[in-house]
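User: Run a structure prediction on this.
Assistant: Running it now.
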Amino acid sequence: MATCKAEIDAANTADVITATVTLWRDGSYVRSWNATAIGTLSFTGTAAAVSGSSYRLVVAYSINGQTMTSRSITCTYS
């Protein structure tokens, strides 16, 4: 099982953060999650993992409705 985590801190504690977290395995879509929070968004999700596969986690988010630059990380599960 893979545990996917993301944390986003807004500049102000009253800012609304909306995010879509998407997990890819070897270039194929696995699943996505949606989350909303105020001030700080802390996300944790799980998905089945396959040994030897490459994973990419992409976080697309907005703060107070303004789209921010997406962030991503890639790793190989062994």
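The CA atoms of residues 40 and 52 lie 33 Å apart.
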